[in-house]
Structure formats: structure tokens, C-alpha cells
Amino acid sequence: MNKVLIIAPHPDDETLGCGGTIIKHKSDGDKIYWLIVTNMLEEEGFDKDRVKERQVEIDNVSKEYGFEEIFKLDFPTTKLDMIPKAEIIKAISNVVCKVNAELVYVPSKNDVHSDHKITFESVMSAVKTFRSPFVKKILMYETVSETEFAPPFQSDTFIPNSFSDISRFINRKCSIMKIYNTELGNHPFTRSIDNIRALSVFRGATAGVENAEAFAVIKEIW
Questions:
Q1: CA-based nearest residue to 21, from 178, 190, 168, 175
Q2: Residues of the chain whose pLDDT is less than 50?
């Protein structure tokens, strides 16, 4: 049994990037935890009803996955670049240590959204071996609508070297994603169920399975 921490800059990133794998971990008996870095806040100009709706979405998604615990850092969404980096690192580090996470999932360092970039950088500082020796593996996931829009240079390209067979879980992943109905659109919008399925088929073909999620191994100690 592993302790698995999924770190999402925003609610929905966890499902887009590794929803099928989260379900797989749960079915394998692992303990799964969810860290949400940012949130919609009324004081940041979000409508009260939308803020309430987002919290309902988070609760419903959590119930579907069966997380042991949710951690909300409540930094303002789209504004992580205005928060002192040390504050973000400390908040993430506290959660990593509380969970005693052995496996950590993080967004791609080259995603175009600044919240994603800063989350990745902060996590990497928080999980240095001398700070979190219990973390044995870090996997970087891709997020449709962010990862594919990175600049077309090798240094900025998401190059997966680990694949999770989610053939048994793709339908449930898509069902959970529909809870975030305000984040979805119809094809060719990037965050569409069609696109989510298409990416899983493409990654599956690379791995020789029907559907897969792809990751880049950042660190592994074994």
C-alpha cells in the first residue's frame, strides 16, 4: 500500500492529467490524497454562486475518487506569480510531510499556465531528499489545454517515459470530468470529452494498450 499525493494547481487538473491513474491507485488499495493549490475566492472577484458551485464540484469529485483527505491551500487562482515563492513552498511542504507521501504527481513544468509552472517549481523545492526522504517517486503529468501549448522547442516539450494502462478506467475518468461541466466544451475545444478520450487512445497506442495516461519520471529511488 502506497501513500499517493496528487498535486493540482486547480481543481480539474488532477482529473485531466491522471484521473484514470487515481482510480487505478484506489482499486489497488493505495491511500490517495489531493492537494489543491489555488481556489476561486470572492475577495478575488469571483461570483459568490460560482465559488459555491466550485466547492460542490470539489466535494463531488473527492467522493468519486475516495480521497483519504483533501488539502486546499486557497491561493488565488491565476495569481500564484503574485505570491512569495517561499510561502507556496512552505505550504506544499507541510502537506507532503503530513501525508508522508511516497509517490507524488505534479503538473508539467512547461505548461503555459503560470500557476502550473510555479506549482511544479514549488513542489520540486518541497520534495528535496533532505526535506522529504520518504518521497520515492515523482511523476509529471500532462494537462490538456496547457501542456500541448508549450513552445515547440525540445527543452519545453513533454516527453513521457512512463505509461499507466487506464483502459478499465477511461469511462469513469470521463464521467468524473463531467462534474466540472463549466470547464468542458465541445470538440474542437481542447477540454472536451472527445479530446480526453483521443489523448488516452494516442498514449495507449504508444504503450500497446487501449487507453493510457502518460507521465515523465522526475525522480525514482528504489
A1: 168
A2: none
**How far is it, in rounded angstroms, from Cα 126 to Cα 97?**
9
Looking up cell 519545453, which residue turns up? 156
Domain extent for 39 = 3-220
Is residue 162 classed as helix, strand or coil in its secondary structure?
strand
- Yes or no: say if 198 and 212 are a contact pair by the CB < 8 Å rule: no
pLDDT at 94 (0 to 100): 98
Distance CA 92, CA 50 (A): 26
Say which CATH number the domain at 125 has: 3.40.50.10320
Q: In DSSP terms, which residues pair with 69 in a beta bridge?
A: 33
Cell digits of residue 108: 508539467
Total domain count, the chain? 1
Task: State how far Cα 76 lies from the chain centre.
Answer: 17
pLDDT at 149 (0 to 100): 85
> Which residue in 160, 159, 162, 149 sits closest to 195, CA to CA?
149
Q: What is the CA radius of gyration of the chain?
A: 16
User: In 3-state terms, what secondary structure has residue 187?
Assistant: coil
Q: What is the C-alpha separation between 104 and 177, in angstroms, rounded?
A: 21
